Each structure stands twice: as C-alpha cells, then as structure tokens.
C-alpha cells in the first residue's frame, strides 16, 4: 500500500480525502487513496481495509518500504519509520527535503494508536483557526504519530494512504 503526500501543505481546513483521491487520479494511480487522518467518522487505524492491514507492506511512491504493514504503524511506538526512506508527494518530490513544505510536520489528529483525538483534529479538519488545535508529528522524530499539538493555522504535510490493494 502506498503512502504518499499531497503536492502542497495544508492548514487544518482541508478536504483531504477528496484531495487524496484527485491527486492520485492525476498521478495515474487507479486505486483508492484516503487521507492519513483521523476524522469525525473514522479513526486513522481503521482507514485501511481489514483484509489488507496485516499482509501488505506500506511503501513510498517508488516502492521502498516504510512499514512492514499497516498494523505496525499503530503498535504504540508512534509509527516509527526509517527517516532515510523518503516520503514522496504525488508529483514525485521528497517532502523531507523539498522547500514546498517548509515545516516538516504531518497532520494526523490521532493518538499513538491511531484513535481520533476529538480535541486535537481542527474541528474534524474544517478550521484553520489560530485558536483551534490539531495533533501532528514532526518528521525529524522519525515517527508518523508523534504527539504534538499545533494551531490549525499551520500549513503542514498531509499524507494519503492507499486504502485497499487491487492486483
């Protein structure tokens, strides 16, 4: 399953699932992509289909392994990954080094176990208000689910996950 970033950073007011769908299509990817975010309807840990959570690796756009499988992201260690394996945007840029993302932080709105944090998910990703808070993770920590709260006015990286495998 591919883990890919949107082509630009976003504040807490985003239509992330739609952006993931649209940018994946434009990149020529035919499978379904969902935002790597907890929402008012779903915890991040359940975004990927049950049948695909254990046996498929999570890879970047170039097929390099980031995680053994989906479940391994939510084992309580904060989604630890190898920071030497790049995360690419749909248009092929490395979000860790490209200046289009000045802040190397990803939104997630979740606990370390992928459960939604209702107090820290920018009002279900519908506000960029300075006073509202969203849970995010600085990528330099080597974790996708590090637990830091930021103002929803920040423009951070938004990741998308391929939520089901089609051979």
UniProtKB/TrEMBL annotation:
User: Which Gene3D superfamilies does the entry mention?
Assistant: Mannose-Binding Protein A, subunit A
InterPro entries, alphabetically? C-type_lectin-like/link_sf (IPR016186), Collagenase_NC10/endostatin (IPR010515), CTDL_fold (IPR016187)
Q: Which Pfam families match?
A: Endostatin
Q: Which domain of life is it from?
A: Eukaryota
Q: Which CDD domains match?
A: Endostatin-like
- Annotated Collagenase NC10/endostatin domain residues: 1-166
Q: What is this protein called?
A: COFA1 protein
Quote the gene name from the UniProt entry.
Col15a1_1
């Amino acid at each position: 399953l591919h883990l890919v970033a949107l082509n630009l950073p976003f504040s807490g007011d985003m239509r992330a699932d739609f952006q993931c769908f649209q940018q994946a299509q434009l990149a020529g990817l035919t499978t379904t992509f969902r935002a790597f975010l907890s929402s008012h309807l779903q915890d991040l840990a359940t975004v990927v289909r049950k049948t695909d959570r254990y046996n498929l690796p999570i890879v970047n756009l170039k097929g390099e392994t980031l995680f053994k499988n989906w479940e391994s992201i939510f084992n309580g260690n904060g989604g630890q990954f190898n920071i030497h394996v790049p995360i690419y945007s749909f248009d092929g840029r490395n979000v860790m080094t490209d200046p289009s993302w000045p802040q190397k932080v990803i939104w997630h709105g979740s606990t370390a176990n992928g459960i939604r944090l209702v107090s820290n998910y920018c009002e279900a990703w519908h506000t960029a208000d300075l006073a509202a808070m969203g849970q995010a993770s600085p990528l330099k920590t080597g974790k996708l689910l590090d637990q830091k709260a930021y103002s929803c006015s920040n423009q951070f990286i938004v990741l998308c996950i391929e939520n089901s495998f089609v051979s």
